[in-house]
Design goal:
By secondary structure, the chain is of the alpha+beta class. It has helices spanning 42-46, 54-63, 98-112, 123-134, 190-201, 205-216, 222-246, and strands spanning 7-15, 19-26, 34-40, 70-74, 79-83, 88-89, 158-160, 169-171, 177-179, 186-188.
């Protein structure tokens, strides 16, 4: 089906240096259907986002029941239209609840078991790319920006979201949990998703143990716990440099890629 480029803007959702999004109602062949319209800002090109691969990532995520369907994509125009997922976006407070931590861990486990989709995400290359975008302002960044290698201990790449911060978890009125904002997704290390979730939710060590136990089906070994701590440190470093490169305000949750 070819979708018409016709919609009615209902409300703005977000505006950043990377993109702007709106909730819209479609017209034409799908009248009244709600969707999310995203239009790129110049920051998207500066960060090297792969808009060509994104529709395939969304298709795989939607087929697995993990995310919204892609309704229309025009990478050349920086335009993306995705299904609106009704429900409530989680906050860090939701993830303070051990039951919700287990649900989030289960969703990530399902994602990581999904057939491979998307481009390979090179974390050190991403850090270097963001550092180049920062340029002379790098001296004001409170962390080293030179790539040093992502932490060891990964068992291999899998399909990852790469930005599982609390607000990207949407709980439907029926209690179904899915993820939105798949623009950074691709083939990466599963530990990166787990560390990104823990960092974004502000989890303490005991809560991290709950997360890792739910994800693995057993308590983490001391080596696994230490590896997770190293991944959190890497995520923090990458997030700080991403924030400087994208023009994000201080305190904004890091975008992980």
């Amino acid at each position: 089906m070819t979708l018409p480029l016709q919609w009615e803007v209902l409300e703005p959702l977000a505006a950043t240096a990377v993109s702007r999004t709106w909730r819209v109602a479609l017209r034409g062949q799908l009248p009244g259907r709600l969707a999310v319209l995203r239009l790129d800002e110049p920051g998207a090109a500066r960060l090297g986002l792969n808009r060509v691969a994104e529709p395939g990532v969304l298709k795989a995520a939607a087929a697995a029941g993990l995310g919204p369907a892609c309704l229309l994509a025009d990478p050349a125009r920086g335009l993306l239209l995705t299904e609106w997922l009704p429900g409530r976006a989680w906050t860090a407070t939701d993830l303070q609840d051990p039951a919700n931590l287990r649900r989030a861990a289960g969703l990530l486990r399902r994602l990581h078991a999904t057939p491979l989709a998307g481009p390979v995400v090179d974390l050190d290359a991403a850090l270097a790319r963001y550092a180049r975008a920062v340029g002379a302002r790098s001296r004001a960044i409170p962390v080293p920006i030179a790539p040093v290698g992502a932490p060891a201990g990964a068992t291999g790449v899998c399909f990852c979201h790469n930005d599982p911060t609390p607000g990207n978890f949407i709980e439907s009125p029926a209690g179904e949990l899915r993820l939105i904002d798949w623009e950074y997704a691709g083939l990466c290390h599963p530990e990166f998703d787990l560390a990104g979730l823990a960092l974004g939710a502000g989890l303490n060590r005991a809560q991290v143990t709950v997360l890792l136990t739910a994800y693995r089906g057993r308590a983490p070994t001391p080596a696994e716990a230490e590896s997770h701590h190293q991944w959190e440190a890497f995520c923090h470093r990458l997030g700080v440099v991403w924030g400087a490169a994208s023009g994000a305000a201080p305190g904004l949750a890091p975008k992980l890629t």
